[in-house]
């Protein structure tokens, strides 16, 4: 079981790299064209290569039931997140047209990929199980986001948008895994994919920081207290507790329990900001949610992961 110091050592560099990305963007060293182009490269090449190297042959995905559990938890936990966020939004008197729908989407979805990946890679470098499950778990999250999430925001679903690079790569990787085709892939190809996949984690984290740095240039902090405080309560308290309880008591695979502990400690996802901008939501509310939960998570993530790993695995 990783100690608190080990967990802190794994999480601190992630936020440090994000901070550097934010600083570079604030200094004007990263233009919007470079930012968009780099994220496209991550989405369409680096992440798919990483997925195709960590899923095939992964012992945590030896049984199809493990994949079903992982996708299912990704989907239903986001639905629970939406329900909790919507309820809290009503309680603090957010209204439609005043950011209620955007708050629901942003506070309801944790950062399920870019932030957990480097933390898991550092904490479980000798265990490939949790890393492979990150991407399979993401399928469920993506389905919930582009169906129910977009329905909440616009009353329309966006199923076609699910078919992005990582989503297709996960399905391809699962097919390769359960058919055993990975045993026949030439070593030169797997080596090349590993090299490209290793770029995914640091570049992704750096660019998340850059994206947040770009948002900081805007006046998004006026009347932000209500949204910021409520989002921290939803994401970092209520939903963290729910995820840990489910991980503790549901009869799911051990590697999935470990993954959910990490997910429970994550701040809100960054991508819903883009959803708010593209589909007529309230980008300022989305930015407030992301920034507030990200700032708080710097201090709370190591504590929550340390406690969660012990409690879920019977250490307390």
Please describe what this structure looks like.
The protein is an all-alpha fold and 316 residues long. α10 runs parallel beside α13. The two termini are 12 Å apart. The chain has helices at residues 4-26, 32-54, 64-91, 100-108, 116-123, 129-154, 165-179, 187-197, 200-216, 225-249, 254-264, 271-278, 283-312. It has a single domain, classed as Na+/H+ antiporter like fold (Up-down Bundle). The mean pLDDT is 84. It is globular, with a radius of gyration of 19 Å.
Label this structure with key terms.
mainly alpha, Na+/H+ antiporter like fold, 13 helices
Low-pLDDT ranges: none
Overall 3D form: globular
Mean pLDDT metric? 84
**Main sheet properties:** none
CATH first level: which class?
A: Mainly Alpha
The total count of strands amounts to 0
Strand content: under 5%
DSSP helix count?
13
The succession of helices and strands, N to C, reads HHHHHHHHHHHHH
What's the short version?
The chain is mainly α. The chain is built from 13 helices and no strands.
Task: Give the secondary structure arrangement, pairings included.
Elements: H1 4-26, H2 32-54, H3 64-91, H4 100-108, H5 116-123, H6 129-154, H7 165-179, H8 187-197, H9 200-216, H10 225-249, H11 254-264, H12 271-278, H13 283-312
């Amino acid at each position: 079981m990783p100690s608190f110091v080990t967990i802190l050592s794994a999480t601190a560099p992630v936020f440090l790299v994000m901070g550097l990305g934010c600083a570079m963007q604030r200094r004007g060293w990263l233009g919007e064209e470079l930012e968009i182009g780099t994220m496209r490269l991550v989405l369409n090449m680096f992440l798919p290569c990483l997925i195709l190297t960590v899923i095939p042959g992964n012992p945590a995905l030896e049984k199809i039931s493990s994949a079903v559990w992982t996708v299912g938890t990704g989907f239903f936990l986001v639905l629970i997140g939406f329900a909790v966020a919507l309820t809290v939004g009503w309680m603090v008197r957010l209204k439609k047209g005043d950011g209620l729908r955007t708050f629901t989407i942003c506070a309801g979805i944790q950062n399920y990929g870019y932030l957990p990946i480097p933390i898991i890679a550092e904490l479980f470098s000798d265990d490939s199980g949790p890393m492979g499950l990150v991407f399979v778990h993401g399928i469920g999250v993506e389905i919930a986001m582009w169906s129910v999430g977009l329905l909440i925001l616009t009353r329309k679903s966006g199923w076609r948008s699910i078919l992005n690079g990582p989503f297709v790569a996960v399905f391809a990787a699962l097919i390769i895994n359960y058919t055993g085709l990975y045993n026949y892939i030439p070593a030169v190809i797997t080596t090349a994919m590993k090299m490209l996949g290793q770029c995914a984690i640091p570049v992704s984290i750096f660019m998340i920081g850059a994206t947040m740095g770009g948002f900081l240039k805007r006046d998004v902090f006026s009347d932000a207290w209500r949204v910021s405080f409520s989002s921290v309560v939803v994401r970092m308290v209520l939903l963290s507790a729910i995820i840990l309880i489910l991980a503790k008591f549901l009869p799911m695979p051990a590697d999935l329990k470990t993954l959910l502990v990490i997910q429970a400690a994550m701040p809100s996802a960054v991508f819903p900001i883009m959803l708010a901008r593209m589909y007529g939501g309230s980008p300022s509310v989305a930015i407030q949610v992301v920034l507030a939960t990200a700032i708080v998570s710097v201090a709370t993530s190591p504590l929550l992961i340390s406690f969660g790993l012990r409690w879920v695995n019977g250490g307390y």
